[in-house]
Specification:
This is Transposase (putative) YhgA-like domain-containing protein. The chain is of the alpha/beta class. It is built from 8 helices and 7 strands; from the N terminus they run βααβββαββαβαααα. The protein is about 45% helix and about 10% strand.
C-alpha cells in the first residue's frame, strides 16, 4: 500500500535559525530529542550558539542550537548541541569535537571543581557520508522505513513532510509549526531564497565532482596511451636485439634508454 503524501514542512536547518528559537516551539525539539535519547526531554532555555545567525547569507551551511534541559526546577541541567550540516566539511568531526569541548569549558566557572562539569550531548543531522567515529544521524542514508518514533523524525527531516499517521512525541507540533503553507509571505520568500542558496551550493559541489571524475578518466586514458606506447617500444627493442644492431642504435630507434634496453 502506497504511503499517502504528508504535510509539507520547512527544512530543519531553517527552523533552527527561526522558529525553534521561540520558547513557544520548544515542544518540537523536545519531541525529537525524547525520541532520540529514549527519555522525556524538557528544554528550559535556548542558549546563544556560535552560529545562530538568522541571515541566510551568514554561515548557511552550518547552523546549531544550544539547548539547556532540566525538569523545570533544576537550574543546572544538561546541555544539548543540535546541529544540521548539509555540505561536506574536511575536518567536520574534529570541529565537532572542538565545539563540544568548548561548550563544556565555557560552562565551567573559574575556580569550580571538575565535578561541576555539565554533561553535553552533541546531536548532528548530516546530509553526507561520515565515518563511524561518532554517533551521527546520516539523514540521506535513511531508507524511509518507519519502525519507531525516531524513524518518524528522521523521515520528516529527510523528506520535509509529515504523514498524517505519524504519532511520535512532538511530531504533531512539528507538522503544525513547520507548515510551509502557514508561513507569512515575507518569511516564505526568505525560506525560498534559503533553499535556492542551498541548492546552488549542492550544484556547485556536484559539478566540481563531475569535473574531477572526468579529469580523472581523461588522465587515465592519457596514462594508458603512454603505457601502451612504451610497451610497444619495448617490443620493438626486443625484436631489434635479434638483428645484431648496436645497443645505442636500438635505443635510439625504439625510443628507450640504454638502462631499459639492458633489462630486456
Amino acid at each position: 500500500m502506497a504511503k499517502k503524501p504528508g504535510r509539507k514542512i520547512i527544512t530543519f536547518d531553517w527552523a533552527i535559525k527561526t522558529v525553534l528559537r521561540d520558547k513557544a516551539n520548544f515542544d518540537v525539539l523536545e519531541g525529537f530529542l525524547s525520541a532520540l535519547l529514549l527519555r522525556p526531554i524538557t528544554i528550559l532555555d535556548m542558549l546563544e550558539g556560535e552560529s545562530n545567525q538568522r541571515d541566510d547569507a551568514d554561515k548557511y551551511n552550518r547552523v546549531d542550537l544550544l539547548a539547556k534541559t532540566g525538569d523545570g526546577a533544576k537550574k543546572d541541567g544538561e546541555l544539548i548541541i543540535v546541529e544540521v550540516q548539509y555540505l561536506p566539511e574536511k575536518a567536520y568531526l574534529k570541529r565537532l569535537a572542538y565545539g563540544t569541548s568548548k561548550t563544556i569549558v565555557e560552562h565551567l566557572k573559574l575556580g569550580e571543581p571538575y565535578d561541576k562539569v555539565k554533561k553535553v550531548y552533541s546531536v548532528s543531522l548530516v546530509y553526507f557520508d561520515v565515518s563511524r567515529e561518532y554517533y551521527l544521524l546520516a539523514v540521506k542514508r535513511f531508507p524511509d522505513i518507519v519502525r519507531d518514533d525516531l524513524d518518524e523524525w528522521i523521515y520528516a527531516f529527510k523528506n520535509n513532510e509529515v504523514p498524517d499517521e505519524f504519532s511520535a512525541p512532538g511530531i504533531n507540533a512539528l507538522k503544525d509549526k513547520f507548515d510551509y503553507l502557514k508561513m507569512i509571505e515575507i518569511e516564505r520568500r526568505k525560506f525560498d531564497a534559503h533553499l535556492d542558496v542551498t541548492r546552488s551550493a549542492w550544484g556547485t559541489i556536484t559539478h566540481a565532482r563531475e569535473e574531477g571524475i572526468e579529469e580523472g578518466i581523461q588522465m587515465g586514458r592519457e596514462e594508458g596511451m603512454k603505457q601502451g606506447a612504451h610497451e610497444r617500444s619495448l617490443e620493438i627493442a626486443r625484436a631489434l636485439k635479434q638483428s645484431g644492431m648496436s645497443s645505442a642504435q636500438i635505443a635510439e630507434i625504439a625510443g628507450i634508454s640504454l638502462s631499459e634496453l639492458e633489462k630486456l
